[in-house]
Amino acid sequence: MEKEQLMLYNTMTKQKEIFVPKVPGKVGMYVCGVTAYDFSHIGHARAYVAFDVLYRYLKYSGCEVEYVRNFTDVDDKIIRRANELGEDPLSLSDRFCQEYLDDMVDLQCLPPTHQPRVSGHIEQIKDMIAQIISNGCAYIVEGDVYFSVDNFPNYGKLSGRKLEDNRAGERVAVDLRKRNPADFALWKAAKPGEPSWNSPWGPGRPGWHIECSAMSAHYLSHTFDIHGGGMDLIFPHHENEIAQSCAACSESNVKYWIHNGFVTANDEKMSKSLGNFFTIREVTKIYHPLALRHFLMGTHYRSPVNYSISQIEIASEAVFYIYQTLQDCEDALSIFRDGNQKEGTQPNGKTARITPAAQDCINKLRSDFQTKMSDDLHTPYILNASLQEALRFMNSSLTQLKKKQQKQQQLSMIQSLTELQKEVGEVLSTLGLLTALSYSEVLQQLKDKALKRAEMTEDDVLRLIEERTVARKSKNFSRSDQVRSELAAKGIALMDVGKETAWRPCVRVDQEQPSVPVEQRQPCVPAEKEK
Q1: Residues 20, 112 share a domain
Q2: What CA–CA distance (Å, rounded) separates 483 from 33?
Q3: Same domain flag for 462 and 343
Q4: Same domain for 90 and 218?
Q5: Residue 214 burial by CB count (10 A; 0-12/13-18/19+): exposed, middle or buried?
Q6: 202 inside domain
Q7: Residue 104 falls within a domain, yes or no?
Q8: In the 8-state DSSP scheme, what is residue 516?
Q9: Cβ partners under 8 Å of residue 107, min gap 6
Q10: Based on the domain organization, do 336 and 413 belong to the same domain?
Q11: Which structural domain range is residue 347 located in?
């Protein structure tokens, strides 16, 4: 089938547009990365999972993507934190860059093509500042260099803010030396104890905004396809990027500006400055990283998503269901293939045909996936409707396979399930929900996390299952029900299959949002990472 044209919401035009890359088949994409002074929180995870999905889908669609995601490793916040800890700023930022990369691996985010750091691109930054000064859009004050917004008439076109609406002092202290309070620093004069580099304006370091303009131009040129980040970056960061990039090069142009929504906690934006954040590590310590990824994709990337224990447990249960279904399918196909081969029948798919119902299911999943993903990456529909429908069909087909007696019917069902499993795998891979581990390994990891949440060992669970079995045999059904209820309250569901009882993770009942006071945290102390 012909693939749908990709539509993306462009913040610049305030509407969805057909995505047409500058060079057919090739995409240049720049996404603003983290300021590396602490462990990353799930607001960061939301952004980088969203753009990883876009990256993956562009590749799925046949595009060659040059993806740049930077690190801010020189910044006021980094310097303040380093001074608090008595650590070298570049050493501290390097440590948290690596911690961030570890988190991205856990969340199945593919590595970008380039991951530049500010400290490694000082020359490019100085060159761009010099060009802006030469073009009359910046001025020097006592070793500082400021961008003059009055000399850039289009300032505010991304955010829609008027110059008179801008308030000074929201991110940095008011500087009375500025010609306009909205002017922003391109270069900051050196201060004692801070990292600095020599420049034509004296020793100093880059301002916050100039780094992305310089690095995006260095790797992608002054014109490229996609620039992304969180909605909180629209103003002032991306607005300032546009101004300084265009001031340095009149031909500078980014065609599509894409922004993801916030993660909230108790319906308030989650951020380090507000102290209401949960780090990725805090979440993945007790929930599987795939559960966090599934949770984040369960809401459209432009909408706010409210973090809650109940929602991430629903996501965890959904991931378990996906992998359990795939494992059941793999087990059944292995058994039936072996059985047919022992009787001299070769189930190689050459004579067996996919059932019409299975072909319809495969076609629908493929069509839904391409249609919904092409409509501004509508992952919630795929996860909550299309994929669930395919998995239900797979489970139903497994039940039918066990009932088939004729070998040709079995071969047809085997071929149908094989092709359906392949299509489901393609969808999961593009969504970043398929790992290099076996299905059974992921299932065991999910169960291990559930045991950690329940503060139990598997032996504890098996002992209670045995106690329940004894109670049922002695017709003590009140105790049997009590054991089931106690385990369910801890997030462990029992399943009676024939004469055996198995268990799986489930959503705990009446879970409240945990609250860890900020003063009790030690976010900057490196912790041994759990696998």
Answers
A1: yes
A2: 48
A3: no
A4: yes
A5: buried
A6: no
A7: yes
A8: -
A9: 45, 48, 49, 52, 280, 289, 292, 293, 432
A10: yes
A11: 311-439
pLDDT band at 170 (very low <50, low <70, confident <90, very high): very low
Among residues 341, 344, 362, the alpha carbon closest in space to that of 353 is found at 362
Cβ pair 329, 421 in contact under 8 A: yes
pLDDT at 196: 97
What distance in Å separates the CA atoms of residue 141 and residue 200, rounded to the nearest whole number?
Answer: 13
- Residue 181 within any structural domain of the chain: no
C-beta atoms surrounding 520 within 10 Å: 6
Q: What's the CA gap between 369 and 377, in Å, rounded?
A: 9
C-alpha 101/C-alpha 30 separation (Å) is 17
Whether 218 and 96 share a structural domain: yes
Cα of first residue to Cα of last residue in the chain, in angstroms, is 41
CA distance 384 to 294: 10
pLDDT of residue 530: 34
Mean of the per-residue pLDDT values of the chain: 91
Looking at the structure, tell me whether residues 389 and 361 fall in a common domain. Answer: yes
Query: Residue 55 is part of a domain; what is its CATH number?
Result: 3.40.50.620
Q: Tell me: do 387 and 485 sit in the same domain.
A: no
Report the interhelical angle of 356-374 vs 387-403 (nearest 10°). Answer: 170
The answer to whether 308 and 316 have CB atoms below 8 angstroms apart is no
Tell me the three state secondary structure of residue 142: coil
- DSSP H or E segment with residue 253: strand 253-260
